[in-house]
Each structure stands twice: as structure tokens, then as C-alpha cells.
Amino acid sequence: MARRGTRFRRYDGGDPLAPPVDLAEALDAIGEDVMAGYSPERAMREFLRRGGRDQRGLDDLARQVAQRRQELLQRHNLDGTLQEIRELLDRAVLEERKQLARDAMMDDGDRALREMQLESLPPSPAAAVSELAAYDWQSREAREDYEKIKDLLGRELLDQRFAGMKQALENAGEEDRAAVNEMLQDLNELLEKHQQGVDTQDDFDRFMDEHGDFFPERPENIDQLLDALAARAAAAQRMLNSMTPEQREELMQLSAQAFGSPALMDSLARLDANLQSLRPGEDWGGSEQMSGDEGVGLGDGTGVFQDLAELDTLSEQLTQSYAGSQLDDVDLEALARQLGDQAAVDARTLQQLEKALREQGTMRRDSTGQLQLTPRAMRQLGQSLLRDVAQRLSGRRGERDTQRAGAAGELSGSTREWAYGDTEPWDIPRSVLNGVLRRASDPAGPMMEIGDVEVHETEDRTQAAVALLVDTSFSMAMDGRWVPMKRTALALHTLIRSRFRGDHLQLIGFGRYAEVMEIEQLTALDAMWDKGTNLHHGLLLANRHFRKHPNAQPVLLIVTDGEPTSHLEADGEVFFAYPPHPLTVAYAVRELDVSRRLGAQTTFFRLGDDPGLARFVDSMAKRAEGRVVAPELDDLGAAVVGSYLGSRGPGGSGGSDPGGSYGDWFGGRGFWVG
After folding, report:
1. N or C: which end of the chain has fewer CB within 10 A?
2. By three-state DSSP, how is residue 88 classified?
3. What is d(CA 204, CA 222) in angstroms, rounded to the nearest whole number?
4. Residue 299: partners with Cβ closer than 8 Å, 6 or more residues away
């Protein structure tokens, strides 16, 4: 048995020097959707469908697949082989008539008979070819054109089943045709043995050793051979199904003339029957409507129908609409064939994104099997939101971003790279070590560069107990304030957990009743449609938080878009009334007074323009010696973070700040850019 050579194919692994995929944009988009109420799984799939700023998503690729499919249908028609036969037939008849006219030695009666026979040929190409089978051609050129019809039919019929056969058998002789007939005979015998379950790998290897030149894709076993043959044969059958009845009838009659013998059609019919029996799952009954001007022959048309089938498979893979779908299902080689290399690169990047999101600590499954954002992902998302907050704050003040961790000058124990404008002390040992490590790879470099310098971070020693109360009532969801509220909570949570770890933050959501929430719980919280704004209960929980940290500065931040409409009764039941009941307001005022006595620095963030809400919030802020901010939704995060930072500074007068001016809120901390 001949030894097969090494098989090579084009490298499809992407750019080996390309940087790893950037999850930041994906995580931001997924986090936004999660905060809007999507599950993490759905949010991830939505991002993969939409894509990013510089990355095409699955929807764009699926749209391009659909356009490619429509283009094939609108470009081609199925009359190519019949049209080519008509042209050969017309040319043969024309050359024969010329010869009859030139031949002066021919008997006039014989000439007239021949001309009458040519003149009375039926309009059907199949019938005309059949009628001329016994005609004694006088023109050599005419005879050659007529023989080309038989040769063309044979090559087209073989090309339908074996791609490239039309070109390979051009100008083929009797020996080549005999080799084809022998291959078909051996192939049918091999398939029939396989159908009976008595074939072996040795049978397949012997077949490939003898006839492997007919199969350039070099299948390695009988199943691979079957898959390739059945896919093309099914495409040929779909092409036949798509023809008009007249076209099918013409081709069936012409097929008997292939290579001048019906043996080829018998072998191909036997092959089709074997393939349909062994691969019944292929689409043998489909059809298409083709309306283009470019005619395709049987072989090329079968290739078009294979392309259509491949495009349909790609469309299903890209829509990811079936159970258990994943992006690894997308056939990148097929995508490159149909849409080009860039489409395959885009799909591969999406596959890498999905894999990275699932495997690099961004998502995990909880005890119920549901996909959830991990704490690491929450930190990354919070840092992104915090950067946006810092940009808004710095933009309002007209200053550059700063990196101060505190204003009191106490060392935090951590260091960071020096930036222009920093006044913190250098960390000499760390800076020298950076220079030594750098020179290990570059001995000729300078002893120290500015990039080696690290400075000590400082922090304020004062601790704060922060209670962020966020309204989770019906109106917040109804008026589009749900996601900005979550973004605000996550930004503040990230700031405190990453930069002010000594502070104690408690997130409290208050709707019909109030509850303390972890940031993951609040971020994933679905819109709540229960009516009620229980500020009283929220303040009860906030005051309990302040009492647990008696040595910390209490900071009370309240985000709301409505007056209190519910409160807790002595038995723990919730009382609701709209318009607000005087008792509900009284209970809320009483707990606010408790917060003031505990020393809380209070800021109300009023969302909306309701006059009644404005009067209520202004009076509450005045009573608590706090302030009121009425930010736009996009500025809510900056307003809350700015208020927190300002509350950490010295003093701070009460009053109202309806315009959202944060300029006096940076005395204690400065703001962090991240």
C-alpha cells in the first residue's frame, strides 16, 4: 500500500502576534445590560450579537451571509448546460450547411435531402441531438462540435458528483473514460459493502490507492468519503428539483447521450441511490428560485447549491438560536470561503471573547446553574464606571485628573508610578529596584529613568460610615432611572472598596419596604413594580448602620424621585397611601432627626421635576442641615461620588444646590481617577 504524503492546509489561527482580546468593552456592555435587567448569559450573547466599536458582531456576519445568499440566487440561472448544448448544436448545423453549399461534387438529391433533414430538426435540443445520432456528417468541424455535446454532457454529469471533473476530463480519451467507469464501479461496490456492514478499512485504503486521484480532498475513511459525496449529490438533486419540468425533461433525455453510452448514467443512478440510502439526512428534496442572467452548468450549478447549503448552515451557526449553541460551532473555514478572511477573523475574535468571558474569572455559575458576574468582573465594571465619573467631575472643574488618595498626608502603605504634578514623597527602595530590574534586560540603559519612580500614596485617617439609600419604587423603573441608579451605586461601591477601604458602605434599596443589599444583588435587581416609597424603613436601616460604627463619620446619601408613600407599622407590616399620609411623612422625619443627632452629613439627590417632591426634599434637607442636588440622570454618579468625597472634608455648609455645582466638595479627598 502506497504511503500517503503529509497534508497541509492554510493556517487559520489568526495573527500569532496579536494582543489578547480586550474584555473591557465587552464587560462594560454586559454590565449595562445586566443592570437593565438582562441575565448575564443573555447580556453576553447580546454583546456578541451586536459587536463592539471596532468589532463586527454575529448579526453583521449573519446579515452578510444572507446578502451573499441572495446575491447567488439573483445572479444565476440553471440553463447553462442546455444553453451550451444549443450553441454547440447550432454551430454544428451551421458548419454542416456551409459544407453542403461548398461541395460541388455532391449529388443534388443527396444535398437536398440533407438540407431538408437539417431544416426539419425539432426545437428541443435533446430531440435534435437524438435525431442527429445517425446523421452522416460531411463537415469535420460539424462532427467535432456534435461529439463535443456528448463529451460535455458526460463531463457535466460527472462534475455534478465529483467537483473539478469537468476540467479534468476535458479532451479525455477512451482510456480516461474507462478509468472513470472503473472508479464508479469500484465505488458503488464499496458503498454497497458498507451498507451491508461488511466493509473494512483495508477495502477503503485499496480503493483510495487505485482511485485517489479522483478525490483531491483525500478522505481518510469511508465516512468522510460518504459525507463529501452525499453533500454534493444532494446539492445536484436540489439543483434538478429547482429546474422547470421542461429543463428536467431535456436533461434526462440528453443524459443518455453522455460519452455516447448509457453506461455512465446507469453508474451514476446507482451511485445516487447508494448515497441517498446511506445519508438520508441530507436535503434531497429542497429547491431554490433562481432569477439571474448568468447561466451555470450542471457542475458549477451544483457548486452554487453547495454554497447555498453552506450559507444556510453558517446562518444557523451565527444566529445561535438552537439548544446548546456556542460560538465554537461556527465553521471558520466555511466562513472564509463564503465571506472572505476578514469575516473569519471577526468570528474567531468573538469566539475568543466568549471563551475569555467564561474562563478568565468574569462569569461563573451559581448554585442554581445560572451564570453570574464574578466579584472580579464587578470590580472591573465598577472601575470603568468610576473612570467615567472622574471624567465628569474633572470636566466640570476644568482641572486635570489627579491621583491623590487623601489630603491628610498619612501613608497608606501602597505606592504607584509617579505622574506629572505629584507632590507625594518618593519610595526610594522601590524606585531603585525598578531601575535594577529594568537594567537586567538592558544593561546599557541609564541607572534610573522617570518611569522607574514610584511615590507613596497617602490617605485621610478619618473613617466614614456611608449609607447609600436608593429608591427602588415603581416610578424609578417607569421613568428610566433604574440603570443610572445602579451605575451610581456600583461606582460608589468600587471607589470605597478600592480606595477608601477603611470606610463602611451599606447599600439600602427602599421601595414598598427597604432592605440591605450586596452590590451583586443590587446590580442584578429586576425592576420592581410594587408601588411604595418607604423612606422610613430605609432610614431605620441606615441609622442602625451608623450605630454599628460609632467612631466613624456618618454620611447619608439618599437618591429618590418621589415623596414617601409607605412606612413600617409597629407590628412590622407596611402601610401604603397615596397621596402621602401625614403619619408616613412624620415617621420619615423622625428617623431623619435621629440621623442628624448621630451626626450624619446628609445629601438628597432629587430626580425629576415634581414640585411636591422638590418642596418635601428641600424641607427635609433643611431640617437635617444637609443639601439637595438635582442632577441630570447622566450626572447622577458624579453627583453622588462628589458628595461622598466632599462629606469627607472639613465642615461643609448645608443648603440647596439645585444646579449640581460640586466645586466645594473636594476639600477632604480630592477625587480618584483610577
Report:
1. N
2. helix
3. 6
4. 155, 156, 158, 159, 160, 163, 165, 166
Closest CA to 605 of 496, 504, 492: 492
* Distant-in-sequence, close-in-space partners of 633: CB < 8 Å, separation ≥ 6: 480, 481, 484, 607
Beta bridge partners of 557: 468, 603
Q: How confident is the model over 75-87, as pLDDT tens digits?
A: 998 888 889 999 9
- How sure is the predictor about 586, in pLDDT bands with cuts at 50, 70 and 90? very high
The candidate with the shortest Cα–Cα distance to 160, out of 269, 6, 50, 51, is 269
pTM assigned to the model: 0.62
If DSSP codes are grouped into helix, strand and coil, which group holds residue 670? coil
CA distances from 430 to 156, 450, 451, 455 (A): 77, 13, 12, 9
Q: Count CB atoms within 10 A of the CB of residue 185.
A: 13
Per DSSP (E only), the strands in 452-525 are 454-459, 464-471, 504-510, 514-517
Say how many residues make up the chain: 674
C-alpha 507/C-alpha 487 separation (Å) is 13
Residue written as cell 427602599? 510
- Residue 374 half-sphere exposure, CB side, CA atoms within 13 Å? 12
* Dist. CA 16–CA 268, nearest whole Å: 46
CA separation, residue 32 to residues 42, 252, 474, 528, 633 (Å) = 12, 61, 20, 18, 15
pLDDT tens digits for 243-300? 999 988 888 888 877 766 677 788 888 999 999 999 999 999 999 988 888 888 888 8
